[in-house]
Structure formats: structure tokens, C-alpha cells
Specification:
Bound molecules: pyridoxal-5'-phosphate
Largest sheet: 7 strands, mixed
Strand content: 15-25%
Strand order of the largest sheet: 2-8-7-6-5-3-4
Number of strands: 13
Radius of gyration: 20 Å
Number of helices: 11
Structural class: alpha/beta
Oligomer: single chain
């Protein structure tokens, strides 16, 4: 996160994970309705209702949080005691690991293997789970690869968790980037599931910090009380604008989709040309994870930034240093030129017969 905030800037910035910003002026909203303070001690009822409606859950199951970041932290803090075991996918979005380590949980990993298309293999979870396991953590879509985990696999993971008395935390911040047959939230798969998400990545309104947790009502109550320690009360102007965003979600989603679709088509052509680059091709998602197994991407990415003015996220942040992550859905011209420059930089490496 620190790298992303301080080091990722470039003329052709492909080190993104969310779609381009949705401009406030395009949000249908009566600004006379904006207020600074409101009745939101444990959440703003209209926003909780909007989140609940969108997911087909009871508002009692909705906990507002400052982005998926705080949602993940709150969820883990409400479940994990120091020393509790938590199983986290590998490769993983770094702050998920950091939150568990910060809470002094005993972190164990289960692999999503490149040779298996980075899919979740429930057998890998069975291999590492113990009676001390309290939580299994998954992203769906997966960050960094954008791989979608089907409900059948999630249900199997739920069964494994139930057998050990554990819960499954599914971070669904990218799930709505599945534009056709969008899966229902995995919260519906059973009481052992809890889900985190936000409007930040797929809807272009990250600045609202509108995030949430879906949890069973007793756990949801606990998490709301825990949030008294962290954020106390949400920022009300943001809640009001978030309600407006929920009223027009399809408008926000479609705007980004056009850019994403164009970027993904270009990425497909790029990968077809770059035989030495391995990547899972996905139909959906805002990121792709590219690599040349056996090589280290870091010097390549430094050169890419200095000589080609293009940035991508080093795979070391996902614990796989021979990969790098690129983002789509921000600006098609920028993506096209950045990708062209990545191709040039890769070609120059090939020419020199140097490893990535
Ligand atoms: C898997 C995952 N979860 C959570 C976040 C943070 O999201 P938010 O901006 O909603 O806090 C990110 C950001 O990159 C992410 O990739």
C-alpha cells in the first residue's frame, strides 16, 4: 500500500487496481440534500438498507466500514484472538496478511498454484486446517489474478471451515467486475461466511470510502461495537453520497465497463503476441498478473518506469517476484500506450537475451 501511494506514479500508470474515477458532476444528485451531520451512530439506515437490498440480506447483517480495508480489519479483529490460526491464500493482497499479523494471529498459507490457473483447491485447505483454525481468508475475484472462484468451490471451503469451527472471510471488492451472470455474494452460502466489500474498485467512487461487512446479526453487532474503537461514527456527507451512488450503481458500473472491455481485448492481443509471458486470462476483473517464471521482475519494472515511463506492481508484493500486476479500466489510451511500452521493454530484454 505504501509503495502504491508513493512509488507507483508514472505517465502510463498501469499499477492500478480500481477503475477510473467517476466524476461527481455525473452523479444524479440534489445537492440541497447534502448534510454534514445525521442520525448514523451505528450506521445510516438508508445506506444500510441500500447495501442490504443490493445483496438480498437483512439490514441487521450489514456493518458500515471505511472501505474494504477497514472492513477486513474489523472482521478479523472481531473474530481472531492473539495466537488463533488464520489460513490465507497465497498469493495474497498484502494488507490482508498485515491485518492478521497485526492482530498477532498465527498465519498459515494455502497455495493457489500458477500451474492450476491460480484456482482455489479445497484439498490444499484441508491439508493445513487444524482445530485451532478460526478463519479462512479468500479474495473473490482474486487479487492479483482476477480469477473467479465458483460457488461450488466456495461451498466446499465453507464445509471444511464448518468442520473445524472456523469461518470464511471472502473479500468481494472486485466481484461486481463480473459483468454478466454476476454471482450472488457468498454470504448466502452459509452462516460460516462473512463478506467484505466497498464501492471503491469497480464503481470509481473510492473517495467516499463506502465499505461494508456482511455478517450474521450477532457478529455484526459485535463488529459495530468494535468500530467504536476505530472510527466511532462514519462521515455523514459520504454516507449521503453513497446512498445516491447506490441509487445509480448501474450507471457507475457501465461507465467503467466500457473502458475495461476495451482494455481486456487489447490485453488478449498482447498476450497472444508475448509467448514468453505467462498469465491467466480471465473474462472479468480489473487486474491481470503477468510473469515469466524463473525470472525476477523488479529490475525490469524499474527500467520500465525510468526508460518507458510506465509502472506496474511488482509481484514481490504478492510474494511471487517473477510476476507483475497491471490494472485495467482507468483510461483506454493510457492503458494502450502503457501496454505497448511494456511490450517494447520485454522485446528489448529478449533482444539482449536477458532474463526478466
Ligand atoms: C483485495 C482487496 N481488498 C481490499 C482493498 C482495499 O479496498 P478499499 O479501497 O475499499 O479500502 C484492496 C485494494 O486494492 C484489495 O485489492
Amino acid at each position: 500500500m505504501h509503495w502504491a501511494k508513493t512509488q507507483s506514479k508514472a505517465r502510463f500508470n498501469l499499477a492500478t487496481s480500481g477503475v477510473g474515477h467517476f466524476p461527481l458532476r455525473e452523479l444524479p444528485f440534489d445537492f440541497s440534500q447534502l448534510e454534514i451531520n445525521g442520525d448514523n451512530k451505528y450506521g445510516y439506515a438508508p445506506l444500510q438498507a441500500a447495501i442490504a437490498r443490493r445483496h438480498g440480506v437483512d439490514p441487521d447483517c450489514v456493518v458500515e466500514a471505511a472501505g474494504t480495508s477497514m472492513a477486513n480489519h474489523l472482521a478479523m479483529a472481531g473474530i481472531l484472538e492473539s495466537g488463533d490460526e488464520v489460513l490465507i491464500e497465497h498469493p495474497a493482497y498484502g494488507p490482508l496478511l498485515d491485518a492478521a499479523l497485526y492482530l498477532e494471529a498465527a498465519v498459515k498459507r494455502f497455495p493457489r498454484r500458477a500451474e492450476n490457473g491460480f484456482q482455489i483447491d479445497p484439498a490444499e485447505i484441508r491439508r493445513v486446517i487444524t482445530p485451532r483454525t478460526r478463519l479462512i481468508v479468500i479474495t473473490n475475484l482474486h487479487n492479483p489474478t482476477s480469477v473467479l472462484t465458483p460457488d461450488s468451490v466456495l461451498s466446499e471451503v465453507g464445509d471444511i471451515a464448518r468442520g473445524a469451527g472456523a469461518r470464511v472471510l471472502v473479500d468481494e471488492v472486485y466481484l461486481d467486475a463480473v459483468y454478466q451472470n454476476t454471482p450472488r455474494t457468498s454470504f448466502h452460502l452459509g452462516p460460516e461466511f462473512l463478506v467484505t466489500s466497498s464501492l471503491t474498485k469497480v464503481y470509481g467512487v473510492s473517495g467516499l470510502r463506502c465499505g461494508w461487512i456482511l455478517a450474521q446479526p450477532d457478529l455484526a453487532r459485535k463488529l459495530r461495537l468494535l468500530n467504536d474503537v476505530y472510527a466511532a461514527t462514519p462521515a455523514h456527507p459520504s454516507e449521503i453520497l453513497s446512498v445516491a451512488a447506490f441509487a445509480h450503481l448501474d450507471l457507475l458500473r457501465e461507465r467503467a465497463r466500457r473502458v475495461l472491455d476495451a482494455d481486456r481485448a487489447l490485453l488478449g492481443e498482447f498476450l497472444a503476441r508475448q509467448a514468453a509471458v505467462s498469465a491467466v486470462r480471465t473474462d472479468w476483473g480489473t487486474t491481470a498478473f503477468l510473469g515469466r517464471p524463473g525470472c525476477v521482475a523488479c529490475p525490469f519494472l524499474e527500467q520500465l518506469r525510468s526508460d518507458y515511463e510506465t509502472s506496474a506492481v511488482p509481484g514481490r508484493f504478492f510474494e511471487i517476484p517473477d510476476y507483475f500486476r497491471i490494472g485495467m479500466g482507468v483510461n483506454h489510451e493510457m492503458f494502450a500506450e502503457g501496454l505497448r511500452r511494456i511490450g517494447q521493454a520485454l522485446d528489448s530484454l529478449d533482444h539482449l537475451e536477458q532474463p526478466l
